[in-house]
Specification:
Length: about 180
Amino acid sequence: MTVEEVFARVDELAGRSGNGAGSSAKIPLVELTGGEPLLQEEIYALAEKLIDAGYTVMIETSGERYIGRLPREVIKIVDVKCPDSGEPDTFEMKNLDALSPEDEVKFVLSTRRDYEFAREFTREHWLAERVKQVLFSPVFEDPQGKWPGLEPRQLVEWILADGLPVRLGLQLHKFIWDPAMRGV
């Protein structure tokens, strides 16, 4: 789909009435995600077009691509991959300098080692003071046993014991659909 086609579909889904600056959407929030959105060169033009039309735009990214090319108005949700993710060295460190106070940083944790990494990364880079929210999300156990899960209660106990200024983020799609389902 072209940027124009995606924009038209967003307008349709959002119930946007009219064209131009005076128009409004029943649903003014758009989140760009799925796979890695920054792999699509058109994402930058789409984000700009959505912002110009009055939408609040969020983008969820794996953190491996530089976020500094996005319009500053885009709210960025940036993952930092933990050691047991299988992708621990993929985070683009330049992204720390491109974060704004409205952005969020997310860690998906599967072990105590992941937790300790996220805790230290958060402290070392002053994330709680630099972004709107730092999220710690537990991994759900794979139903086929491919990977272990981390009980949300255990994660909460660690967060409370350390007094971390972070928010527990439960991945709601894991409650709604099978935790191993992809593409949701």
